[in-house]
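The instructor's notes for this session suggest beginning with a concrete chain rather than abstract definitions. Hand out the sequence below and ask the class to guess, before any prediction is shown, which regions might be ordered.
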Amino acid sequence: RPSFTIQDLIGLVTTGDEKDATSNIGKYLRALESAGYLIKMQKRLPGTALTSNGFARWRLDPEIDTGTEAPVWRMSKGTIYDPNNGKEITLLPVKSVRE
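After discussion, reveal the predicted structure:
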């Protein structure tokens, strides 16, 4: 998919035994965004609740495609380790939203 939401990923990566899959996936996506792997898109998908701000969407940064293995978020170190190239990236504050 060109873009995706947390809800898109839940059905792909969860087993149903997780305590808070939505929160955990969101934290991982924000870490990947901070490392530059993902771009948060400005336009959200419509939400299901009347007062919802909608669902945030991300897309892969086409300039950063290092391989098929998922980057590893090392929360305690504040880094993302990429097993495809062996590099460890220090997380930076998330930049402004791009479309």
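Then share the key points. The radius of gyration is 14 Å. The first strand starts at residue 38 and ends at 40.
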